[in-house]
Amino acid sequence: MSRPRRDCPRCHGPQRGFSLIELMVSLLLGLLVMAAAIGIFLSNQRTYRATQRLARIQEDARVAFELMAREVRQAGGSSCAMNLPVANVLNGAGAATVPWWMNWDRGVVGYDNGGLPGAAAGTDAIEFLLAGEGAVTVTRHDLQAVRFQVEPAMRDARAGEIVLICDPSQASILQLSAVRDGGTTLEYGPSGLSPGNCTSSLGAPVVCSGQGSSKTYRPNALIAKLHAVRWFIAKNGHGGQSLYRVPMVRGDVRQREEIAERIKDMQITYLVAGATGYIDAGAGVDWKHVVAVRLSLTLEDMVRAGTEPSTLTRTLVHTVSLRNRTS
Fold first, then answer.
1. 299 CB-side CA count, 13 A
2. 110, 281 in Cβ contact below 8 A?
3. Nearest alpha carbon to residue 268 among 242, 233, 293
4. Distance CA 140, CA 151 (A)
5. Which DSSP string corresponds to 4-65?
6. How much is the average pLDDT of 68-72?
7. 152 phi, psi to nearest 5 deg
8. Could you give phi then psi for residue 217, rounded to 5 degrees?
9. 185 sits in which H/E element
10. Under DSSP, is residue 265 helix (H, G, I), strand (E, B) or coil?
11. Do 143 and 216 contact (CB within 8 A), yes or no?
């Protein structure tokens, strides 16, 4: 029987490890793999950040369009028929120059390329004048006591409220002097409120210096609160521009409300009844016959989060019809 052979250099050859060159090549290959993995990670991270910021831009645009569109649809409207004669008895309404919120015969007014004081240069602005939702029904108009009885109660109404009352033949704009009986009695007599009413005669044409045309609103006439708002772009105080809204409440112009950040520009065009195309405010728009508004918002995120060394910018367009003028 043969014996197992002992290990020897001749049987198995010399024992050796990796050379320096082999180690360096291995390290180099490992670094290349790690660099590729890190590059993919950083690329995915930049893409995620860009997608996240794009989502924020789109959300800002969605909020802005939704709020503005709601007011565009109601602009110039009333709860009664279209194009009614309007008796505006507010003090100063008949003057050559009136506050922007008091001119109710147009419904919508635009400003082109920074034309509104306080708006950012080169940006458009717009004003909406509208009868709010929640109209109540007149059950009795007492001319002697200068008050209306209504049902249901006018919710959240207070003294100083600017309202529009209308029937199929006429509309009147006035300021309430008192709200009683939980909102079912609305008075509009003399008061120390601003601007106040120049007369208690609600007929058209309005005569403030004497006894004007008397108008008695019959049962089933409608009363609704009036709202006026301005929309414009302005500096926001932290390095960018924002979309702002300024409302008129009970004859008082309130402080501006910041609606959306990252708004670089707003351009607005208007469609007039019978026209074939949209035009700028500076082209001489017939405001009483505007039937649609096209809003274009340019949004810019100042943080350079995209795959290229530039800011993320998007322009979105939304077209809205004035409900009361197209129905």
1. 22
2. yes
3. 293
4. 10
5. PPPP-HHHH-------HHHHHHHHHHHHHHHHHHHHHHHHHHHHHHHHHHHHHHHHHHHHHH
6. 90
7. -70, 180
8. -85, 125
9. strand 185-187
10. strand
11. yes
